[in-house]
Amino acid sequence: MVKLWQGESAQWRVELETGGEGAALSLRTGAQGRVLIVSLGEAPRPETARRAAAKAAKALRELGADSAVLDAAPAVKALGPEGAAALAQGAELACYRQPSWKEGEDKPFTLYLTGAESLGDVLARADAVTRAVCFARDLVNCPANLLTPEDMARRMAEAAGGLGIEVQVLDEAQTRALDMGAYHAVADSAVHPPRLIVLRWRGGQAGTPPIALVGKGVCCDTGGYCLKTAGGLKGTRGDMAGGAAVCGALLALAENKIPVNAVAVIPAVENRLSADSFLPGDVVRSMSGKTIQVNNTDAEGRLILADAVTYAIQKEGAAKIVDIATLTGACVAALGFTTAGLLTNDEGLFMALMNAAKRAGEQYWRFPDFPEYHKMIESPVADLCNQSSDGCGAITAGLFVGAFAQGLPWVHLDIAGTAWVDRPRWEYQVAGATGAGVATLYELCRGLADEP
Questions:
Q1: Active site residue 302
Q2: How far apart are CA 452 and CA 26, in angstroms?
Q3: What distances in angstroms separate CA 65 from CA 54, 91, 96, 274, one per listed residue?
Q4: What is the pTM of this model?
């Protein structure tokens, strides 16, 4: 937890210095108690401050501190309000702990911030985003047996309560009546029924079409009849990280009262094995009317996203679409665990997304969109095939989803490598869920709200 400091002394104090070579740490003991010195380097950026504060917070916890005072004045002087917000966010994210079902509780740690007393509003807005990231982490870290589609819908509705977010949860009868055949091809394999979760933040002008944030919500993914390996099944609970990200983004938009209209659409399902599970070779009809040849039942995410994107356009009147998903192992193979993949059909939305990512401190890399890639998802018996005929899996999976965007400005984000880390890549990460995408989607919508 990060709070503004109003006391007179502290056992620990963290000082941030400009200059030096990177986020180096040194500890000294003097008359003022123990002091941890953190250098921001020669040319600090907000991301440098975020990482430095995270590194300091982790070091202090390891040294046994239960509280500390962070002197933000040097960073505020060098980087302004954005630097103070990054400091607070980095420290708070670094102190995050996974939900635990063990007896006993983790020792609490409080970090107080001084030198930024005039920036209370800035820090409060940053804290809303940080807590939204942590909410997404909590969902993704939750085991599949404790987070069914119904559980996820309930927890998201509870989190949205009191923020002015409209919540609608469609059950299986309602989505079947909408002819969401691609969604139900996956969902009908599970005992736990699916839920289509719709969250609406109407902060902008009435009548202005919303931007749709569509997040994959596969709470349990065995791969269906294209069964995953034992090792692959260990990560099955994280396959709803896209859904967690779009929910988190909307929570932050609402708490900070950003003047934008945004809708989150989360197809929450389980992909399991049953007598009625879909099979390789099946042909299903999507909500859009397009037919899909199923060649791989473990390529289920793009099926539910296809119908969710169609729902966002047809039922929510979306003007722009961003879909986000832990979609492909191919993206992990290409970009690893620090950078998410991106595809788009619109240069303006692409630039807005990249500017948002820079403010959020997240990394995305744009994949190419050449005609030959589109041919790889053609089918001899249906309008599309859910598996590439010739590799390029990260690209073709994204293009499959984009085929349902109906020509609207669209961006696809594949966070398969960045949503979960066994070994943290950045100082403000901890092992497990990262909350990938929350801050970028928030910043994207905030930026769009500033447009005339």
A1: yes
A2: 48
A3: 15, 14, 15, 51
A4: 0.95
